[in-house]
Amino acid sequence: MVSEFQGQYRFLSNFYPCTITYEDIEYPTTEHAYQAAKTLDIEKRKYISQLETPCQAKRAGKNAKLRSDWEDVKLKVMYDICKLKFTKPNFAQKLLKTGNQELVEGNTWNDIFWGRCKGRGSNHLGKILMRIREELSLVTK
Q1: DSSP letter string over the chain?
Q2: Tens digits of per-residue pLDDT, 66-106?
Q3: Which CATH number do you get for residue 30?
């Protein structure tokens, strides 16, 4: 089991540098893209895309005016954004090398939606990455 996205598994983190283009805007990390997707305000999205760090993007996303359908679409948005990252050959290869291990976004900041903290949590990010890994493995067979 991969119990946290640190060390050799840091590449699994949304904070890990990986340029992606989501809905016609280029972002330096998947965290930037996810936080920007919380709003439908294109100028705010562009602003978030230019922030220096994923921490800054996360703060900006918390302050953005949430789109009305956010709770309904946030899992699909995360999947779509992660898929963009992990279909890049280098990232796809690394993800596939995790084999059949359970991927858990273990954390200490009490995120029990996207990960697990102190053994509790839904681990939606880990589940999304395992789904993408399974899809990649079917394509590469």
Answers
A1: -B-SS-GGGGGGSTTS---EEETTEEESSHHHHHHHHT---HHHHHHHHT-SSHHHHHHHHHHS---TTHHHHHHHHHHHHHHHHHTSHHHHHHHHTTTT--B--B-SS--TTTSBBTTB---HHHHHHHHHHHHHHHHH-
A2: 999 999 999 999 999 999 999 999 999 999 999 999 999 99
A3: 1.10.357.40
